[in-house]
Design goal:
single chain; 398 residues; 2 domains; 6-stranded antiparallel beta sheet; 23% helix
């Protein structure tokens, strides 16, 4: 896997230069006018300022990036000090551009400990450091990396260039966006193998011009790969097949006919398997394309992963297995008398690196583009089961 050789942007030389500032009497520290310093070793620029609140004093060391000095920029450092006691609370180092990937170092007895967050998820905690907090104040990230070694997955934060698979996904996303305007929402709607809009439950033709629901929309995208291979869209009936032997329990079995609690799971698995059979690559087994065994995340059988974890999960999946997009079946408590867990919604997730090497995740649902933030707002305590689809081959949306 190719990795950028750009060094991690440091500002430890400026922190050493201003080290006495950290120990000024806390009641004398005031918010300072920003000042820019040039680092002797490489000439890079660092903006230094402080902020004061009722509870804390913050010392900010912000690396220049694209002619600005972002607070949540790769390499930026913030030291937090208790304003009442004058004690140090933590040092925070941003490991990527954005507020959600960072490390924090805390005083711990006479030493310190470290924790790491990836896209908002804590992936390492209570990692001991053989340093006092005063020593940590002026340490470089490269020194931290040497001290902690394989106890911290540092390589996850090494920048990557856009890879061919990312470009393929970016192109796919652009083509889907271009076609959204001709689609309309249709309750229980999908396109059948003859290109007609039908109701999924009955397979009868829709009375109006025709539209798609979330499941039908997912099929429409997969049909984009199927049509060049098959000459027509996939048939609807095989995608409704229920796999009773591979999911469910005694409670859910009682409601298979009345509530169909695993429809979204069966549908997404069947879509992945149908495309694999057409392509003649990989297994067409019903569970063969499930996303399981991702480091730092616990998979719940036939339920998936917390929706709130999708951002870091997709970050990892893209780094380790570029060139895939994902069908997500949302699982949540649903209904009454009794409430049971059901797969109630389907979304499509497309993680890729853009031309600047930054992760973008396009989200499509029910004929429109949304976002991970939108999913998090609507399903804050729910789960998403993922099946993976490799990008590639001809693509023509019916």
């Amino acid at each position: 896997m190719a990795i950028h050789t750009d060094p991690f942007p440091e500002n430890s030389t400026i922190r050493r230069q201003l080290s006495e500032w950290f120990f000024d009497p806390v009641n004398e520290v005031a918010a300072t006018v920003p000042r820019v310093y040039s680092q002797i070793h490489d000439g890079s620029l660092v903006k230094v300022r402080s902020e004061v609140t009722d509870q804390a004093v913050y010392y900010l060391f912000l690396n220049q990036r694209d002619f600005i000095y972002p607070v949540a920029g790769r390499g930026s450092v913030i030291v937090k000090r208790d304003r009442r006691e004058g004690t140090f609370i933590q040092m925070k180092v941003f490991l990527d551009d954005g507020a959600d990937s960072f490390l924090r170092i805390f005083p711990f007895q006479e030493r310190t400990s470290l924790e790491v967050y990836l896209q908002g998820k804590r992936i390492s905690s209570a990692v001991p450091l053989p340093l006092s907090f005063h020593q940590v104040l002026t340490i470089s990230v490269s020194e931290l990396r040497e001290l902690t070694g394989n106890r911290i997955p540092w390589s996850l934060f090494d920048p990557l260039p856009q890879r061919p698979q990312d470009r393929d996904l970016e192109t796919l996303v652009r083509r889907i966006r271009q076609e959204l305007g001709r689609l309309v929402h249709g309750e229980d709607g999908a396109m059948d193998g003859d290109g007609r809009y039908v109701y999924i439950e009955t397979l009868s033709r829709q009375e109006n011009a025709g539209g798609l629901n979330c499941s039908g929309f997912a099929k429409w995208v997969i049909d984009g790969f199927a049509v060049p291979l098959l000459g027509r869209p996939l048939s609807v009936e095989p995608l409704k097949e229920k796999h009773l032997s591979s999911r469910g329990n005694s409670l859910s079995l009682r409601y298979e006919d009345s509530r169909d609690p695993f429809f979204g799971l069966d549908w997404t698995r069947n879509l992945a398997a149908a495309l694999a059979r057409l392509r003649g690559t990989g297994s067409s087994g019903v569970e063969a394309h499930d996303v399981r065994g991702v480091p730092y995340f616990s998979y719940v059988e036939d339920v998936g992963y917390p929706v709130k974890d999708l951002a870091p999960l997709l970050y990892l999946l893209n780094r380790e297995s570029p060139g895939y997009f994902y069908l997500a079946s949302i699982n949540q408590p649903f209904g009454t008398d009794p409430p049971i867990r059901q797969h109630t919604h389907v979304a499509l997730l497309f993680p890729y690196l853009d031309g600047e090497g930054r992760l973008q995740t396009a989200v499509f649902e029910t004929t429109e583009e949304t976002s991970l933030e939108s999913l998090n707002r609507r399903y804050p305590d729910d789960f998403a089961h993922l099946v993976r689809i490799p990008v590639g081959g001809s693509f023509f949306l019916p």
